[in-house]
Design brief:
heterodimer; A: alpha+beta; Aldehyde Oxidoreductase, domain 4; six-stranded mixed beta sheet; globular; B: alpha+beta; Uridine Diphospho-n-acetylenolpyruvylglucosamine Reductase, domain 3; Enolase-like, domain 1; five-stranded antiparallel beta sheet; four-stranded antiparallel beta sheet
């Protein structure tokens, strides 16, 4: 079959920077986000959230709030718990992991500032907020466990008494031989690195419009999300509904970045209220509560050691990762995955055989942390790349040469990392060489020296990285979570000759629908304008996982390809009957079924007309099937890894500690590139998110567990004015696990940028004998490193 | 993030606005450009009973050249100051500072009077008013009074405005031919409130500076004049040694916050002093 696929030919949309058909709709203001949907009899819900990091609820008095104008229901945790069963954010394949049952609203004890406690449903959001201010709660403040470093100390406040301590998960990876390797090393470097908490800041906040229909015992949930079938299964099981009577609709989604793949109490409470009140209930998080309740991420402290021989060969790597994840592990994907990824990925690009890694995940009284774009990758990459640069400096080697010496050779695949990650085929050396050529690395180095003499302090940073994409069932399904790793596509030829492709993967602004249409049009030999793509509706699309872990193109795209091939086969069989020839002699080109190499034949419009209206013209013993469904899952590997390399040029002002990023470069290998422009914009956007966390974004808590920056004025997302030009190039190593050969590209930018930036800053600081080891790299951090404050 | 209920009035005359302010006293807030107030309403950190919208009051938005001063009306938008030839010619400090205020969309709405009346200690325009010795013109039911910028800004979001009074304009004395100004601020992102900022003014006397006024912002609960540092510079040629002594004489006591520690702010103030005063002397 692969012989029929021509991705290189002039008729192929695959490999072309096709513009996004849905961009016009969004630009004209005809997008439909959850808040745009208004239903008859709809109520709005607002929440009273815990003002304390840890406090016992002594009493709740809702009587005054209930009498406020427009208020239809004030519900406490106990009220919601009668409708919604609790959930436990544990994956069984993460051995020993634990987290207690969590309810949508706090029951007796609130465990982070911002935890929802009371829900108020009213005719308008403003009235609901007015009534929230009238809810009276008597609190008994409890000591809070905030510092992850002290969470396991004797005498620490234990957040869940039944566990005896605050340990959520611990894992050790050990290849053996690590101590011996360190003992015999010519150079040993060691550092403790810390990474601040930050969050996703989606343009469209989390939103849920729940519409319970008592007559059908059905629930339609309009959700700003990225995994509709996962939500369907969870809402059905937690709310006691038949799964097939729960419909999840994700229309336009204004960014997600992993923030919207988790179960949030406020969204569950909105659904429960719709059931209680038999009315549609809308929840749209405002920006303030987004900061308080959207999952946070990162916040790791990593101790790292690296041993190398005199020539610069890495002999062994050891890390100890500690992370605090809030009081509960998020449901259903858990909050241990980021730490698990750090253990699995750190040092993954390199040849060393000895590796020891300890990961510790603890509970704390802060907003829960969980998966956010490039889960674990920025930490794993920054740690390893920092240590590689430290070793290079200790041995007086150029950082590029250090990488050339240690990266896994491009002809050594398939192979396995010391942590057990299996690599099908990567291209570290090809990416690095393309990167240094793109950067004109030798000229940058010469320029750096010349500028330093003039008092201008620039640094050059490199980072080689791997990225987990196209996950198999080994990611979540194996751990008991009802999250599909397979995905499907139902494709049909309509009576007008149009192609309709319904897919389980979702669009949240990155161009999924465009990519799907490109594949369908290419496989079927039709114009892209003849293809309509349906996503984000559990009533309309085949069962699938949605879009996360960079799986939409690699997995969803392959299902589309397979469905396209099957539909094409069926179309050609119809064509063969009509043209009275052999199907093998036919092809589809430019929307026509033709005899191969000729233009002789009939259009798909004509073919469809015959099938749907003039079936009498077909042989009596032949039934055309112009609707097909195909599914795909990754079978040969747990994940299909990608790789790449990033470069950063940054300038520091040693007087003020300010860092200016002058330029970023990225060479990424995501296998077959379906749409270069979309991939490049994914990488650019990802790099900006990575730079944000590394430079400015930081969720700051005070000593009482109060989040101090809950506005866009105080939480500093990167702005266009401060962002550098970002140059992107590709190496293409198609994966052999699919016909399409595509791997993911959504997280490469975010995963690599913080490491490249930190190396650039430290390269500049090296002139002063200084280095930074914590992110975000603020003026405080740089000036402290320079000994100037 | 929905504002609590409030009453709204949009008087068409200054007298009407003053009457409303007199009637409602502390329970009224003036709405000018709304770039801070509307966010404060939505965050429910401000909950006035009455909003008095002065946008329809005639004559409050003028920028005019008088005999001895430039008068800037309270409703003059930042973007108007940015574009004003009059401001560029006579108050170059203001023209430079205003480009650091937030972003174009905010500068299109935000007003000079709103910025001064809010008195955010990290705002640019109050510091400029202080450096240039402006007088704020306040109008109340009992008439008009003028308050020097140094007395007007009294603390964190605190001014000399009394209940019932409206800031209608500021009068900036016309600088002489030998006067010089310079401006600098350090912010993590362009448009953010500065970690530290400095609006500086002096008279050039040959190679020396006289009447030096260094108005720092973002380092205290209001814009402050660094008088001791200015005294070091007074009458002297600006060289490295003098600058170092001026930095050493800085007696600012900035507090640390989310964005920078107290130590960093102190250091940045010194760096900024050196850089801005060098420019002042050029």
């Amino acid at each position: 079959m692969s012989g029929e696929l021509d991705f290189e030919g002039p008729a192929s949309y695959v490999g072309r920077s096709v513009s996004r058909p849905n961009a016009r709709r969004l630009a004209e203001g005809r997008g439909q986000y959850v808040d745009d949907i208004v239903l008859p009899r709809m109520l709005h819900v607002a929440f009273v959230r815990s003002p304390h990091a840890h406090a016992r609820i002594l009493s709740i008095d809702t009587s005054r709030a209930e009498r406020m104008p427009g208020v239809r229901r004030v519900a406490t945790g106990a009220d919601i718990a009668r409708i919604c069963k609790p959930y436990v954010g544990v994956l069984t394949h993460l051995a020993g992991m634990r987290s207690p049952p969590q309810h949508p609203l706090a029951l007796e004890v609130a465990r982070w500032q911002g935890e929802p406690v009371v829900a108020v449903a009213a005719e308008s959001r403003a009235e609901a907020e007015d009534a929230c201010e009238a809810v009276e709660i008597a609190w008994q403040e409890l000591p809070a466990a905030l510092d992850a470093e002290r969470a396991l100390e004797p005498g620490a406040t234990v957040i869940h008494a039944e566990f005896g301590d605050n340990l959520c998960f611990r894992r050790v990876v050990d290849t053996g031989g690590v101590d011996e390797a360190f003992a015999g090393a010519a150079a040993v470097v060691e550092d403790t690195l810390s990474f601040g908490r930050h969050t996703g800041v989606t343009l469209e906040p989390r939103s849920m419009l729940a519409d319970y229909n008592a007559a059908e015992e059905s629930l339609t949930a309009y959700h700003s999300g990225q995994s509709p079938h996962m939500m369907q299964a969870i809402l059905a099981s937690r709310l006691g509904l038949d799964e097939h009577r729960v419909r999840i609709v994700c229309r336009d989604v204004g960014g997600s970045f992993g923030i919207k793949i988790h179960i949030y109490g406020d969204e569950m409470a909105a659904c429960a209220l719709s059931i209680m009140l038999r009315r549609p209930v809308k929840f749209v998080a405002d920006r303030h509560e987004s900061f308080l309740s959207d999952i946070h991420a990162r916040d790791h402290r990593v101790r790292a050691r690296l041993a190398a021989d005199r020539e610069g060969n890495v002999l062994a790597l050891e890390i100890d990762d500690l992370t605090g994840v809030g009081p509960y592990s998020m449901y259903p994907r858990s909050s241990a995955v980021e730490c698990n990824q750090v253990l699995g990925l750190t040092g993954g690009p390199y040849r060393h055989k000895r590796y020891r890694a300890t990961g510790t995940v603890v509970f704390q009284n802060k907003n829960p942390m969980s998966q956010y774009r490039a889960v674990g990758h920025p930490i794993a990459t920054a740690v390893a790349e920092h240590m590689i640069d430290r070793a290079a400096r200790a041995l007086a080697l150029d950082p590029a040469d250090m990488r050339r010496r240690n990266l896994i050779p491009d002809d050594a695949y398939p192979c396995q990392s010391p942590s057990g990650m299996r690599f099908e085929q990567l291209s570290h050396h090809a990416c690095l060489e393309k990167l240094v050529a793109l950067m004109d690395y030798p000229r940058l180095r010469a320029g750096q020296a010349a500028l330093r003499a003039q008092g201008v302090h620039r640094g050059i940073g490199l980072a080689s990285f791997i990225e987990v994409t196209n996950p198999s069932p080994m990611f979540y399904g194996v751990g008991g979570a009802r999250i599909a790793a397979q995905d499907g596509c139902t494709m049909r030829l309509d009576a007008s000759g149009a192609i309709i492709a319904a897919t389980g993967v979702t669009e949240q602004g990155q161009g999924t629908e465009t990519m799907i249409a490109q594949i369908a049009a290419t496989v079927l030999g039709v114009q892209m304008s003849c293809v309509k793509v349906l996503t984000g509706d559990t009533d309309k699309v085949p069962y699938g996982g949605g879009t996360w872990a960079s799986r939409a193109a690699g997995i969803g795209g392959e299902a589309v390809l397979q469905a396209g091939l099957a539909l094409k086969k069926n179309i050609l069989e119809v064509g063969a009957r009509i043209l009275k020839t052999d199907a093998g002699s036919l092809d589809i080109a430019d929307g026509r079924v033709v005899k191969r190499g000729t233009s002789e034949g009939l259009s798909l419009t004509e073919l469809a007309r015959i099938v749907y209206y003039r079936g009498n013209e077909l042989p009596a013993d032949f039934q055309p099937e112009l609707v097909v469904t195909r599914h795909y899952r990754v079978k040969d590997y747990p994940f299909v890894f990608t790789n790449g390399a990033q470069g950063c040029l940054a300038e520091i002002d040693p007087e003020t500690g300010f860092v200016r990023v002058l330029k970023m470069w990225c060479v990424d290998d995501c296998g077959r590139v379906i749409n270069p422009k979309l991939v490049e914009e994914q990488i650019r956007g990802g790099i900006v998110q990575g730079l944000g966390g590394a430079l400015t974004e930081h969720c700051r808590y005070d000593e009482r567990g109060q989040l101090l920056n809950c506005t866009m004025a105080d939480y500093l997302v990167p702005m266009a004015g401060e962002m550098p030009d970002i140059e992107v190039a590709h190496i293409q190593t198609p994966t052999r696990t699919s016909l399409l050969g595509a791997k993911g590209a959504g997280e490469a930018g975010t995963g690599g940028a913080p490491g490249a930036l930190m190396n650039a800053v430290n390269d500049a600081l090296a002139a002063f004998g200084a280095r930074v080891t914590s992110q975000p790299i603020t003026p405080d951090v740089v000036l402290a490193a320079l000994g100037k404050i | 993030m929905k504002a609590p209920r409030f009453a709204y009035a949009r008087p068409a005359t200054l007298e009407g606005a003053l009457a409303l302010l007199a009637a409602h006293g502390e329970e009224a807030r003036v709405l000018a450009g709304g770039q801070s107030l509307v966010a404060m309403l939505n965050l429910r950190v401000a909950a006035p009973r009455v909003l008095v919208d002065i946008n329809r009051v005639p004559g409050l938005g003028e920028v005019a050249l008088g005999e001895s001063c430039v008068r800037i009306g309270a409703l003059a938008r930042h973007a108007e100051l940015e574009r004003s030839e009059l401001v560029a010619r006579h108050l170059p400090l203001l023209a430079r500072a205003v480009r650091h205020i937030a972003h174009p969309a905010i500068r299109n709405r935000g007003t000079f009077g709103g910025s001064c009346a809010l008195a955010d200690p990290a705002a640019e325009l109050p510091a400029c008013a202080l450096a240039l010795g402006a007088k704020l013109v306040l109008r109340g039911a009992r008439g008009e009074r003028r308050v020097a910028a140094g007395e007007f800004f009294r603390g964190l979001y605190e001014t000399a405005l009394e209940a019932g009074e409206l800031l209608v304009a500021a009068e900036f004395p016309l600088p002489g031919p030998a006067s010089a100004s310079a401006f600098g601020e350090l912010a993590r992102r362009h448009g953010d409130y500065a970690l530290v900022g400095l609006a500086a003014y002096a008279q050039r006397d040959g190679p020396a500076l006289r009447d030096v006024r260094l108005a720092f912002f973002g380092v205290a609960d209001r814009p402050v004049l660094a008088a001791r540092a200015a005294a070091v510079l007074e009458g002297r040629r600006v060289d490295e040694a003098t600058l170092a002594r001026a930095v050493a004489a800085l007696d600012l006591e900035p507090r640390g916050d989310l964005h920078a520690s107290a130590a960093t702010r102190r250091r940045l103030a010194g760096v900024l002093l050196e850089r801005v005063v060098k420019e002042l002397a050029q």
